[in-house]
Specification:
Elements (H helix, E strand, L loop, with lengths): L17 H19 L5 H8 L8 H16 L9 H21 L3 H15 L2 H11 L5 H29 L2 H22 L11 H14 L1 H31 L4 H11 L5 H10 L3 H18 L8 H30 L6 H50 L3
């Protein structure tokens, strides 16, 4: 099937089938996982590459820098370049970087590969507005929610999967397997996806220069980006300090910590529900509920004595509540900004994602600092303050 879509044409009711939605969701999950495979493997990778303890954080940081750069420099190309070719090309860039990481025996080649793994992973943020373009207005939220479910599954499953594979084989095997998966995925998408050729008179430089104007001229974008920034900052703070709390207070091993990450997977079911609520015009109330759930997640962690089974159960409940709130709200944001017009969807998505991705990086750094200074009490207090701030801002809408 081939569809040459333009900014003047609307998608037909059969433009995105259940099968195509599943393919896009699976692709999002597989690609997004590449960003997170290395997070639980910092110790074995740094030991193998000769990285010092102080420098080991670069393993994750370089991927994040690549991803953030790609959000601003590659994702906007979705408004300029034929989308199927762009998606497959970016995925193949990621595959090459994964292979380079798998073969790396020294720190510098691995860190450069990590940078390009991040760049290649932004294919996810080209796929999501592409799916929104294919979907008719009446079901756009549902389609975006379903596709985002794959994204969330990839994010949540990446850490436990890479931990288990490394325990059975080696960390090299994780990158080899993902590189092979990306090559197969690119081939499948090339044969499956309909074409989508944007119509624009802009050059690449003009496209990038238009992005600050989009921020200034689009209050809805600013508002939805700040909503998600408050929640995603809390999310990354929680997942930075929760493993430290589990290891220190409860004596959990790496595999035990991975099981908590699996509990958080329950949050992915919020994405399709949020999409359906948005399609029915309930975005505002759903946004408020998402923020309240995220705040409640941090509140319940104060129940029970530290180190008790009750407190551990509350941590699991918190992981699920925070994930539901964050995953649901990101889809509500997608639905809102994608309704603003498909001629600049990719740029809007790049700006939306870059804003809360930056907040996530800050949340992770602040969480680690707070935990070192005041333990779980201080870290969770800051985590609670973030969704509360978002809630107060949302009440001004």
């Amino acid at each position: 099937m081939t569809m040459n879509a333009t900014i003047e044409t609307a998608p037909g009711p059969d433009a995105v089938s259940q099968r195509l939605t599943f393919v896009l969701a699976a692709a999002c999950g597989m690609v997004a996982a590449n960003i997170y495979y290395a997070q639980p493997l910092i110790a074995p990778i740094s030991a193998a590459l000769g990285l010092s303890h102080a420098a080991s954080g670069l393993i994750v940081t370089m991927t994040q820098i690549g991803y953030g750069t790609g959000l601003l420099l590659i994702v906007p190309l979705g408004d300029l370049v034929e989308n199927r070719a762009l998606i497959c090309s970016v995925i193949m860039l990621g595959a090459a970087a994964l292979l380079a990481a798998a073969f790396a025996t020294h720190a510098l080649p691995f860190l450069l590969a990590a940078l390009f793994i991040g760049l290649g992973s932004v294919a996810v943020q080209i796929i999501i507005p592409y799916a929104a373009h294919l979907a008719p207005e009446a079901i756009r939220g549902r389609v975006v929610g379903n596709v985002s479910t794959g994204l969330m599954l990839g994010i949540m499953l990446a850490r436990p999967v890479s931990s288990f594979v490394t325990a059975l084989l080696s960390w090299h095997a994780v990158f080899f397997a993902s590189a092979a998966l990306m090559i197969v995925l690119a081939a499948v998408l090339w044969m499956t996806l309909p074409k989508r050729k944007p119509v624009t008179r802009m050059h690449y430089g003009q496209l990038l220069l238009s992005m600050p104007d989009l921020v200034r001229a689009t209050p809805l974008l600013r508002r939805r980006a700040l909503y998600q920034a408050s929640l995603f900052g809390a999310f990354t703070l929680f997942w930075t300090v929760a493993p430290l709390q589990l290891a220190g207070e409860f004596g959990f091993s790496q595999r035990g910590i991975a099981l908590l990450a699996l509990a958080g997977v329950a949050g992915v079911f919020a994405a399709p529900i949020a999409g359906r609520l948005a399609d029915r015009g309930h975005s505002r109330i759903a946004t408020l509920v998402a923020m309240l759930l995220t705040a409640a997640g941090f509140l319940v962690t104060s129940i029970g004595a530290s180190g008790s089974m009750l407190n551990l159960a509350c941590l699991v409940v918190a992981a699920i509540a925070i994930d539901i709130g964050v995953q649901g709200n990101v889809v509500l944001g997608f639905r809102a900004i994608f309704a603003l017009g498909h001629e600049h969807r990719s740029r809007l998505n790049g700006l939306y994602m870059a804003t809360f991705f930056a907040a996530g990086a800050v949340g992770s750094a602040v969480g680690a600092w707070a935990f070192a200074q005041g333990g779980w009490t201080l870290a969770s207090a800051i985590g609670l303050a973030l969704p509360v701030a978002g809630l107060l801002y949302a009440l001004t809408e």
